[in-house]
## 1
Amino acid sequence: MKKVKSSEITPERIYKNRRKFVQNLGLAAGSMFIGQNFINLAQASSNSIEQEITEYRYITTYNNYYEFGTKKSDPVENSQNFKTKPWNITIDGEVEKPLKLSVDELKNMFPIEERIYKLRCVEGWSMVIPWLGFPLYKLLDKVSPTSKGKFVKFISVLDPEQMPGQRYPILDWPYKEGLRIDEAMHPLTILVTGLYGKELPNQNGSPLRLIVPWKYGFKSAKAIVNIKLVDKMPTSSWMKASPNEYGFYSNVNPRVDHPRWSQASERVIGGGIISPRIPTTMFNGYGDEVSHLYKNMDLKKYF
Ligand SMILES: Nc1nc2c(c(=O)[nH]1)N[C@H]1C(S)=C(S)[C@@H](COP(=O)(O)O)O[C@H]1N2
Ligand SMILES: [Mo]
């Protein structure tokens, strides 16, 4: 019903017809020059990256979504009949004004913006994705977190009838993730409702998923039904499955390896048959914007 202002969103035609480069992915699409050959973001920032936007067909066929299976091709194959309408979401816990509303109502509450962010999976690959959504802080402002709301917990849907992966104890279902309140309030943190100017495909987490661009991809819970403000650091499904591999923070950090995968470099999905590897950057390239959140923290200990 809304409000995707056409001026804010690049038509797919334009994505297709240009060589797509993003310079420094750190800032929002405010300074995007539609009609030129590239999207130029945040030139002022020092740690600039240049990487092509990943093609739609890779973004929508190479997925991690264990509710629909553990192979990269499982989500697109097994999620097409997944029912995302109607869909309600509750924002509650340590808040003064809890909310329960439909995703359609939520989409009409805030202007939908385009944000071109890199998604870096801890498995060692990345894609650059033109997301549609709105900053999470706008929603959190509406519910007025109390002083006990120190963390935010994200809970995905539990529906084993529709989600074959949930019939097996691969993870602690429903999928759970968490952020510290200041991370959740950071203007780069968004709730996503679409990509490439279109509705969010089921395999990418329709109707609502999180994106925290300086953290590994698994922090970005898909198919969210509940956002809960809590007093204590939540335990995510991944922390519970393997605490020495998955910490709470999970900031992209090329100097702290996962026990099974080096984090020093990443494979560019859709970057051609040679699948080039490029160096991974601290905080996925968003250091200028987010490193202050972690000052005086030992990021090896708090991985
Ligand atoms: N509910 C849910 N959310 C999830 C996952 C999942 O298995 N279930 N996988 C995560 C992982 S590991 C990654 S890398 C990203 C992948 O997002 P994409 O398929 O849109 O690229 O989703 C994350 N969100
Ligand atoms: Mo991932």
## 2
Amino acid sequence: MAYIKLNKTNFFNNLNIIKEHTKSVEKIALVLKDNAYGHGLTEMASLASEYGIKRAVVRTSEEAKKIEEFFEYILVLSDTTVVKSEKVRYTINSLNSISKFSNGTKVELKVDTGMHRNGISKSELNEAFSKIKEVGLVLEAVFTHHSSADELTSEWFSQNCNFKIVKEEASKLAEEFGFTQLRFHSSNSASLFRHSNFDEDMARVGIAAYGCMSLPSSLRVEGFKPVLSLYAQKISSRDLQKGQRVGYGSTYESSRDLIISNYNFGYGDGFLRSCSNNYSTPEGIELAGRVSMDNSSFVSDSDELLIFNDAIEIAKSAGTISYEVLTSLKSDIRREIVG
Ligand SMILES: *Cc1c(COP(=O)(O)O)cnc(C)c1O
């Protein structure tokens, strides 16, 4: 099977850039959901902890449990199964979900400021606070999520305006219901870097930390370096004569005599099949034909091939985003920390 190299120097470089912007390492909550964007949950948790990161964000309680030893605070985005841990906080995504938690559970309330995906609406704030109090939950924060922080539209500004109103109302309600020191957060990677003077309590940073944030040129932030690179090994080679074809559907036809080799990275491992007939590696080596389940063929005879070292680039060939390229990588691929 192919294997992954995780570049620690690049990861720390990215965290340095993020820390400069949040002004303190305490304000960075590293998003480690979906196997740390395909990088490897425990590998990235351990590196983050070595760097000094104290907060993490995950999707499930199971993920939270796996990385508990590395952090002081873990926010679970969408799971109502409570694990025994003082460190874990749970997201309230709707009024209905409040009663799923039991007395004493630490929660954070998500408010919908325009994305219309999860979270309560502004008009439900009062009812939410009242229910949370009634069930006896410990409300620690109110937060929101941006739909378009990485796009040049007015949406980011309008959600910020809405969240400002939410903050004011929530602060009043917090006083009324006795939730002291309520925290607020709204930023993912792209949003964090749009604030010229970031002053929220925390930023939930994913893609920027992994060095694969893609932004329009006017929003671009310099200096990030991809953490993950993927290597595959040769299974076999053959001489191909001009006019011979390769792979399923025989979609690749050689325009000259050449050597073709087959490598152990296929769509079953997370190589997006939409790259078929439309991808060259960073070293300019051409993918020949369709991606198969367990392997793919390239115009090369090297024993090992760097398949990609920048998810943004390969995402272009696949017609998708770096997030999907990365999270498609299967968890049983070996991960090796270098640098
Ligand atoms: C995934 C996610 C993030 C991280 O987004 P990036 O664009 O990777 O920084 C932040 N907040 C929430 C609620 C998320 O679901």
